[in-house]
């Protein structure tokens, strides 16, 4: 059986293990190696000795994207049997004033301060739309421009009022985790937009977010196929002459070594630099990877148990922002809905956290309590117990690295000599729990390609020839077997719904084989033509279809600009990385309304990939994350953000028999079948 190793038992490693287990349907054996005595990483809770009251020692909340589209983390929380609730705040404490809402800021600092704050937030919203925020886009022209600017310089350029500047810096400082001059404008703008309606909400996992890590670990142990080894610190990682990945580690009993067919490294950046990377090529690649992302942000969490909730008479929000320590977030850890326990948690960020980290716990707690506004300072005398947790260099202050880079580059540091080695980290996206799930999803998709090839008794065919079509996907002759896959009638219904096509439209079937799909589209009333590059299958085109089915190359289409309303393609997965930009550019050139993406992807059900030999003739299985990047580079944007339209499309697919057991695993996989050309 194929053996997959995962180094790191934090949220990234646990999520990657669960995703790989589910995506491969038990076809692999997974082993998670964790240095600490328990899994969970930054998802950790503590308890006060006085009465066992819990508190968040690490990450406190998750982001809620459900108003913008499918939310994988919310789905994971629910799948683990956990519940969550929305947490919100309108409170800002500045210069000892407890301000609730924008109107209070205007009353305290004047109408011009409020006007400039509102104008800057509108500017941020114009730069990054809710849809781009949801997709985590860093490749739009606006995002690229912001990524090249310093955050503080951007703020000073567009906000003249000193009070407005200070309030904006304070409000975002706790999330950015460094002073504004040490990050870029893109990161700052994204954090400012967290407070703008229509973007995201914050949620708290009931009982603490650490329950998510516990639930993941319990699920992995209970269902089999995954072994979790704790107390094993990886010291050296390399690839042996046998092509397997070797992980040297130190356990309590002494040195040991693990060997795997493929490896996912889910360690924080600070830990990556402490591993010895075997071989000069791999070492150089990992040093480049670390240097690209190493923009450390710092946190200290101070949790205090009080005799009574003295603050609730003044502040009744779930959390609020204070100007103390340059801007920190203060959480009401156990509000009335959680039983009314009396804990406040300070999240101190950036240089303030770095400075405090050199002090003893008691001094840190004393300074934290002294930061309370005058009207609440009496609460210091109600302290029962306190705890301090240091998280230095725990996040990336420039998420995504110095500039935009392709997804597979971020997750495959050395793809040439080490194609089965992947990295996972929240620093690759936006340094949140949501980000680490996104990273684990991307890496597990990339890992499916070597897993598919290793799982086959015979390696997937590199080229498609006549024999392939004689026994198409193991189902018999192509002419009989092709009806098992998405049919022209269903595809036409989907395309009409997405692009609101009511009249007969022109369609190009790219990858048309012997033209049976073209015939099906024409039967639906479309003006359809096909293009096919494989001579063996094209030669089997019936005489009645030859005028509409062309032998040609998708990289050099024999059609005029804008010749088709829609392109229906099933051939792009067979195009290599070097030629893919040319193929996409040609498809962009000839289409006016949209492209239906029907190629094989890494997200297809593993049993279907195996059963139908879908990897045959495909250089490398690419996941939707990667495909979206390629389409965007070619001038396309995803057409279906989610919502009711996606629900209707999914209902159509399920009714036609192409749901989870037929072709598409879920509605999210269907979402990435539709792309619309946009202006440069």
Structure description:
With 680 residues, the chain is an alpha/beta fold. The protein has 4 domains: 2-42 and 209-294 and 399-455, 3-Layer(bba) Sandwich (FAD/NAD(P)-binding domain), CATH 3.50.50.60; 45-89 and 295-396, Polyamine Oxidase, Chain A, domain 2, CATH 3.90.660; 101-199, Guanine Nucleotide Dissociation Inhibitor, domain 1 (Orthogonal Bundle); 466-677, Rossmann fold, CATH 3.40.50.150. Helices cover 36% and strands 22% of the residues. The chain is built from 26 helices and 28 strands. The strands form 6 sheets. The protein has a 7-stranded mixed β-sheet, with helices on both faces. A 7-stranded mixed β-sheet has the order 24-23-22-25-26-28-27. The radius of gyration is 27 Å and the shape is globular. The model has no long low-confidence stretch (mean pLDDT 91).
Overview features:
680 residues; alpha/beta; FAD/NAD(P)-binding domain; Polyamine Oxidase, Chain A, domain 2; Guanine Nucleotide Dissociation Inhibitor, domain 1; 7-stranded mixed sheet; 26 helices
Task: Give a short synopsis of this structure.
The protein is α/β, with parallel strands linked by helices.
In CATH's first tier, which class of the largest domain applies? Alpha Beta
Q: Tell me the Rg in angstroms.
A: 27 Å
Strand order of the largest sheet: 8-7-17-18-19-16-20
Q: Mind telling me which CATH architecture of the largest domain this is?
A: 3-Layer(aba) Sandwich
Helix content: 25-40%
CATH domain fold name of the largest domain: Rossmann fold
Largest sheet descriptor: 7 strands, mixed
Average pLDDT confidence is: 91
Kindly give the count of domains. Answer: 4
Overall 3D form = globular
SS-based class: alpha/beta
Query: Kindly, what is the distance between the CA atoms of the first and last residues, rounded to a whole number of angstroms?
Result: 48 Å
What is the helix tally? 26
Based on DSSP secondary structure assignment, what is the total number of beta strands?
28
Strand proportion, as a percent range, falls in 15-25%
Looking at CATH, the homologous superfamily of the largest domain is Vaccinia Virus protein VP39
Low-confidence stretches: none
